[in-house]
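User: Hi! Is it possible to get a structure for several chains at once, not just one? Here's what I have:
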Amino acid sequence: MIETPDIQRPDPALIEGLRHVSSATASGELSRLGIRDPHIRGPVALTPGMSVVGPALTLQFMPKREDLYNVDEYADPEKQMHRHALYPTQPGDIVVVDARGSLSSGVFGEMMLTFFKGRGGIGVVIDGCIRDSPYAKTLGLGLWTRGVTPNYHAQTDIIPFAVNVPIACNNVLVMPGDIIIADDDGAVVVPIGLAPELLKKGGEHADWEVFTRMRLAEGGHLRKYYPLSAEAQAEYEAWRKK
Amino acid sequence: MIETPDIQRPDPALIEGLRHVSSATASGELSRLGIRDPHIRGPVALTPGMSVVGPALTLQFMPKREDLYNVDEYADPEKQMHRHALYPTQPGDIVVVDARGSLSSGVFGEMMLTFFKGRGGIGVVIDGCIRDSPYAKTLGLGLWTRGVTPNYHAQTDIIPFAVNVPIACNNVLVMPGDIIIADDDGAVVVPIGLAPELLKKGGEHADWEVFTRMRLAEGGHLRKYYPLSAEAQAEYEAWRKK
Amino acid sequence: MIETPDIQRPDPALIEGLRHVSSATASGELSRLGIRDPHIRGPVALTPGMSVVGPALTLQFMPKREDLYNVDEYADPEKQMHRHALYPTQPGDIVVVDARGSLSSGVFGEMMLTFFKGRGGIGVVIDGCIRDSPYAKTLGLGLWTRGVTPNYHAQTDIIPFAVNVPIACNNVLVMPGDIIIADDDGAVVVPIGLAPELLKKGGEHADWEVFTRMRLAEGGHLRKYYPLSAEAQAEYEAWRKK
Amino acid sequence: MIETPDIQRPDPALIEGLRHVSSATASGELSRLGIRDPHIRGPVALTPGMSVVGPALTLQFMPKREDLYNVDEYADPEKQMHRHALYPTQPGDIVVVDARGSLSSGVFGEMMLTFFKGRGGIGVVIDGCIRDSPYAKTLGLGLWTRGVTPNYHAQTDIIPFAVNVPIACNNVLVMPGDIIIADDDGAVVVPIGLAPELLKKGGEHADWEVFTRMRLAEGGHLRKYYPLSAEAQAEYEAWRKK
Amino acid sequence: MIETPDIQRPDPALIEGLRHVSSATASGELSRLGIRDPHIRGPVALTPGMSVVGPALTLQFMPKREDLYNVDEYADPEKQMHRHALYPTQPGDIVVVDARGSLSSGVFGEMMLTFFKGRGGIGVVIDGCIRDSPYAKTLGLGLWTRGVTPNYHAQTDIIPFAVNVPIACNNVLVMPGDIIIADDDGAVVVPIGLAPELLKKGGEHADWEVFTRMRLAEGGHLRKYYPLSAEAQAEYEAWRKK
Amino acid sequence: MIETPDIQRPDPALIEGLRHVSSATASGELSRLGIRDPHIRGPVALTPGMSVVGPALTLQFMPKREDLYNVDEYADPEKQMHRHALYPTQPGDIVVVDARGSLSSGVFGEMMLTFFKGRGGIGVVIDGCIRDSPYAKTLGLGLWTRGVTPNYHAQTDIIPFAVNVPIACNNVLVMPGDIIIADDDGAVVVPIGLAPELLKKGGEHADWEVFTRMRLAEGGHLRKYYPLSAEAQAEYEAWRKK
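Assistant: Yes, the chains can be modeled jointly so their relative placement is included. Here is the combined structure:
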């Protein structure tokens, strides 16, 4: 029996609050909080329009080594670590996978993804691929991957290796329990310790941005409206009163 | 007059049977039959939702060499080998092209593709690009390419060189007459000699998969339902009776 | 106060005429006029179906160097050159950006793009990314980029450096004021000096192409209909009379 | 105080025996023992002519994350994991580093390498770079790296993260205590469990290879001498008697 | 019994004459004869200082396909096409290999290369690797490769497929019997039909180049001495008289 | 007559002082002065053992565009900008070239390099290649390039475009007149404004480093000797007295 650690889930209020923060706002604010680049390059939105916020379950793949991963083991599903990665799923979870950028391995297929969805999972971020993509796209999960493939998870060059350990998802370190904010611009990792600060900064709603966008769309000048110049400030306040 | 070989087409029953086998099922089964990776990486679905199964006509490009391919030759369409690749087209054929991964060459444009479609061709798999893509996507052909380009086939770095010879389509060897199975997960090459075996394996419909998928979607556990545990087996049989 | 040059805009009739020339026709004809490869590889259509023709405003990014670009400067928006790139926008303009192929920098976000659209801009071609893509795609601009990112323009490795200077947009040299023709096949640069010649060549409408396409779709042979053989010529003329 | 595990070192006789096995022989034999590709691609010989065999200490780098690795920590050398990787060094050890292929980080410099050599270390294999290379090359260590750089280990994009854990050294999984065989052809990982078998196979000296090489050099034919044909067998035995 | 074609060897006087033409001179002159880029990018000099000129034997690798290349076949050396590539070797021959840029396959090892040398072969150009490199470098052959590896030729992803057919050696088309000129700057393919013309152009010795180089080394100006200005012409003629 | 700007050369004392600072020391100190990565990745030492310090002349290449760079212009050497880049050479100068990473263009050949050496130039850093490398390596210049090629500077895809303008040398911005420090670890750009500060920091000779290196080589522990512990401090002072 394989035992893997679960993650510590964040205060639901934190997740709720961050739901109003886009990946773009998050990345910019995290940059100001000292994180140079929180964006996971490589995985792109496979389900355009989906946007998710939640804690990260992590799964690490390693290069395949035949002495450690033979046919007999494959015959015993319970030894497959990519299954174990999904076992602790709770509603609102996001699974993040270091699949080493492989385009030859379909990390999850329809059955795994259906199970994950059935357990309440909401998003999948993989530095690699899924398979059974026509079906997977209909599940209502948010999917961010490098692509799709017909190959199964351990068919060629990588094997699932560890669950809920720190992983490198391409250029970004993800700790189990960090928060993921993902939408059409991509997936951003929010270190759990910085999440409250991000919530404070990212949540400051900018009423004037609505006004600015409107004026710019009408042909107004950046110099005047973005950011608001002193002259535009008065105009904005008049507009807001209405 | 250029003479090129035609391919030997498979038993229609074989194609008919394989129509029910997805690229994902095919890749997994071929892996078990000893083919490590039958998936052609690089070309991706340009016409999402299309899925095709058929025998491969092949076309090989080579690096352009000006002493072999000059302006005068270009003036004589009958010397263009990419035309000859399409001449033997029969209904149900798929053309597979080694275009050396080039993003600077549009292997086929609207006229070639219209002709191919008019002759009954159903799919195009190119380790490279097409052009006239807005029109091409409306033809009803399945298209798998690395991308699109406005350039014509021999504009920059490659030239069409040979028809119905063994080709390397990126990481996969394709023999003329092999069977291609392509859908949104990608294109898989089925060596013609393994096709009957694949048909047998891939065609074993798994009634229980429908049941399993349903249970997983309802929150059932992988351990119980995938594969079916002894406990779930009884439940499945009861369900099937209904 | 930063002063940057404006571009010289072409005769509106030239633009009007080229509106009927696809990027594929343009690339082929420019090739025959001596330009080996006018296609900007890398940026792809982010707004499928959009097609634009117009003069190029140019913006050059350079690798970030902290002694030249520090936080204090960032605090003063007027020193941000990517804003200045958009200031001279006139109706029908296209902005072309050498962003060094970066996938870590969102060259423009919603505010910049809204301003550009508000001023009459019609297209954006970037050897790099934008951010706020869900909103950006709704603006009615034609967008050709390498991808999207949540990062802001100077967050990681590049900074905006110069406006309306000659730039390298990946593999293609773009001079300020050159004409861009972009559609789903990609973006092509028309050197301003060659534009009148291209207009002449590319505009020669080929009535017979409609006929040929129809015949090919019906199963007619390339040899007969493309180009028109002597035999098909008569058939075509009969058809045209109707 | 940071505690990291040490490795279990192999029977010295095993190492002694494998010293007569080249990386080429090892790779071929491991392939026949079921390991598809034991060669670590990427690192190449920086000290041509050096050849080493020994157990692997491992060091894992991860993407830099500023909230986990700030300037203050850097000020305390004892928190630097790349130092800890070398602390357990015993004579004959080889350190293997997953530096994520980075060309921007010099994993070890002169002081680290001098210490490693002083403790009896014999080889360094890095999927990344060293710095202070002019000095490093004179130390008498065998060095296999992707290149050299003037940057220090944590200057840009990666940080040392864990010691003597399983690592991915580019395409190969290395377990702490596996045996490394490295020479001018590259570095090969021998899973410790397969080492005795490799010793048996790789150690079978082929007297006839000396004979064959001589005959081929004189213009003898491959068909006759490699492998030895029946005809050549007699000739070989006559030669051996002399 | 496998039969493969031999190549037609050029007039020895042609080879003799081209021996005085460097790869740099050849590339420039071929460019003026209409060949845009005759340089095979990828393979670099493994044996610095060696320079060879001779006709090309060609060998084509293809992606490995397990149904066509199984263990039993490997057991029969005579079915190995990379052996057949060397069988027709005559003194002065150069073998050129399309190994698909693979860094995981050692196309030739010590025995093959010793045989090739024993038969009079002088150079090896591979878009891929060799193995047994320490020994190979001592053989007196000129070697141009992408690198070295301990793996054998068919260990991982490619297999030898055809002998003396047209091949793509990375970016260049090589016809069997074309002439190769290779030195420290790299390997250039001279289409056999252009060889006489190249000999004429490349062989025009420029006496004044010696003079120019001397003057430039002394601090003379490019404008005056390269090419020779009218003023320098007189100086040169005076120098030549001495 | 083409006029290009010259650079402002630094105080000779600055160069003299920096001659004792290695690229590794420079990169580390510049990092502490706020420059994240001053190392030009890509170009590597072609002349091992050479080390140079001097001001940067800059040369920018752009993608080739046939309407701007035709055969006739090539016929007039004075229009070749890569010649103009070398005209202002003064003793101690280093020329830095953005050749766009091209492996198909030999930026300088023997004549250009001989002239540069004759004028007192000491180093060449190219994000691209040179040609005539066997001769070039004997000139006594320090050369850092991506490789070598037989092709001439404008043969394929790039053309020389501007002299002594700001350039991007791969990942680093170089301003004309910045200082280059290059040795076997690579080439580092020192922004001219930071050079005095670097001189101060990098020049602080660390006597104890000699002592530390000695102790480490003898098997001393990093913890004790690097940096010097209190215990080692006394030992060091005793050693220094001798």
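The longest strand of chain B covers residues 52-63. The two ends of chain B are 66 Å apart (CA to CA).

User: Great, thank you!
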